[in-house]
Amino acid sequence: MAASRAPVRLLAVVTGASTGIGYELAKLCAQNGFDLVIAADEPEIHIAAETFRAMGVHVDAVEADLATVEGVDTLYTTIQATGRPVDILFANAGRGLGKGFLDQDFAKAKRVIDTNVTGTVYLIHKVGRDMRLVNSGRILITGSIAGFIPGSYQAVYNASKAFLDNFAFALRNELKDTGVTVSCLMPGPTQTEFFRRAELLDTDIGTTQKDDPAKVARDGFDAVMNGQADVVSGWKNKLQATLANITPNEMLAEQHRGMAAPGTARKH
Q1: Per-residue pLDDT at 68
Q2: What sections of the protein cross the membrane (predicted)?
C-alpha cells in the first residue's frame, strides 16, 4: 500500500510583514498552518521569517522595495517559484508622512503614493489575475479609517488610503461572480513603527494611546477568512468612521489638523 501524502498547506503572501499589523497577520497565518511568502523593504523581514519558521511552516522572505515595479516583480518571482497558487494575499505594506504638504520633501511624498497605491495595485493586479484564473483566492487590503477624513498635515497619506478603501470595494464588486473575494481592513491609529517613520512623534495623533496591532490583525484575518467586505477595527474607530460620513469635509479637515499638525503633542 502506498504511503499517504501529507496534505499540502495553504500559501499566504503578506507584505509589510517585518513589523506591526503585517507581522501580526503573518503570525496568525503561521499559527493556522499557512506557508508564507513575506516581504518588506528592511532586513528585519529575515528576523521575522525565522520566528515564523519556528512555528513549523515554510517561509520565503523577500527584502524588496515594494514602492517600485522592480521590487514588486522580485516578490512576484518568488511567489511563482513556489509553484503554488496564492490562497490569501495580505496587501498590507504602507508608508505615512506628516507635516504640511508644501513643507514635505516631494520625493518622500511620492514614495508614500508609490508604496501605498502604485505598488499595492500592481501586486494585486498580478496575483489577482492568477487567482481569477483558478477561480479561487482571498485578498485583504489594509486601508484605513483615515481614508474617510481629509488629512490635514497627512494629506497624501489619507488620500492614498481613500484610494485603497474605494479600490477594495470596487474590485470586490468586479469579482463577485468568481471564487475570489476581496476584503478591506480599516484600522485607526495602531501601535506600530508607522508614527516614528512618518515623523509624527511631535503630534497629538503620534503620542496618544493606540490600538494593539495583534487585535487589529485578528480582526482583518477573521474578516478575510469569512469573506467579509470590510472591517473597521475597534469600536472607537467604528464610531469615528460613522461620524465622518455625516460631518462636513471642512470640519473633518480642521479636526484632523488638531491631531496631526506639528507641535500638537500632549501628555496623555
Answers
A1: 98
A2: none
238: left (phi over 0), alpha (psi -120 to 50) or beta: alpha
Structural domains in the chain (count): 1
Could you tell me if residue 5 is inside a domain?
no
Q: Taking a C-beta distance cutoff of 8 angstroms, is the pair 129, 172 a contact? A: no
Integer Cα distance of 113 and 76 in angstroms:
20
In degrees, to the nearest 5, what angle opens at C-alpha 237 toward C-alphas 220 and 17?
A: 35
CATH code, 79:
3.40.50.720
Q: Structural domain of residue 157, as residue ranges? A: 11-260
Q: Please say if the pLDDT value at position 85 is more than 50.
A: yes
Instruction: Return the C-alpha cell found at 134.
Output: 483558478
Residue with the larger pLDDT of the pair 113 and 5? 113
What are the tens digits of pLDDT across the range 154-188?
999 999 999 999 999 999 999 999 999 999 999 98
Residues 6+ apart with CB under 8 A from 199: 97, 98, 99
- CA 44 – CA 250 distance, rounded (Å): 40
User: What is the Cα–Cα distance from 257 to 149, expressed in whole angstroms?
Assistant: 11
